[in-house]
Amino acid sequence: MTEKDTYKTITAPSKEVLFKDKNSKFFGYAFPVTSEEEIREHLETLRKKHHAARHWCYAWQVGTEDIQFRANDDGEPNNSAGMPIYGQLQSFEVTNILIVVVRYFGGVKLGVGGLINAYRTAAQMALEVSDIEERTVNVDYLLVFDYKNMNKVMRVIKEKNLDITDQKLELDCRITISVRKRDAEMVFGLFAQLYGVDIR
């Protein structure tokens, strides 16, 4: 089995979605994230925006190979909010995403089953209105070479249609390329055999 080198994520924060059940309101949001710092910022923003709400439950998953995730019930009964939200991240097979569901209590208790359904549905709605795209898992290489070897290097980059993410072209040139993971070894080999080019 080949290792998977693609993943799905969302391109931009979702629109706000609303799920209602017995006067309780559940506002759902999905955000693209890559760090816990970004996650904290989104949570703080929503806590300010919905300062009168009762619960800000969420789940997030970050990473493509080394995956980290967390689910938080924020005072709701155990596993009635965070895990149902996290379950939607899994069923949509997405990563690098934070989903927050903000609850305004409507005076009628929903019971654990009702809560699970409400949080799951609000999370699902947030993902359904999001723009989900598939991306490749990439490996970055730094190429170091003398200016006289520029043509050789650029020829391989063009032939293999490689992405240049950074370059410094002086007497001593440095180019950073981003290569799809499944092609990484092959590309590394091409540059490694070029005389006067150092790839790392």
UniProtKB/TrEMBL annotation:
<protein>
    <submittedName>
        <fullName>Uncharacterized protein, YigZ family</fullName>
    </submittedName>
</protein>
<feature type="domain" description="Impact N-terminal">
    <location>
        <begin position="22"/>
        <end position="127"/>
    </location>
</feature>
<dbReference type="GO" id="GO:0005737">
    <property type="term" value="C:cytoplasm"/>
</dbReference>
<dbReference type="InterPro" id="IPR036956">
    <property type="entry name" value="Impact_N_sf"/>
</dbReference>
<dbReference type="GO" id="GO:0006446">
    <property type="term" value="P:regulation of translational initiation"/>
</dbReference>
<dbReference type="InterPro" id="IPR001498">
    <property type="entry name" value="Impact_N"/>
</dbReference>
<dbReference type="InterPro" id="IPR020568">
    <property type="entry name" value="Ribosomal_Su5_D2-typ_SF"/>
</dbReference>
<comment type="similarity">
    <text>Belongs to the IMPACT family.</text>
</comment>
<dbReference type="Pfam" id="PF01205">
    <property type="entry name" value="Impact_N"/>
</dbReference>
<dbReference type="InterPro" id="IPR023582">
    <property type="entry name" value="Impact"/>
</dbReference>
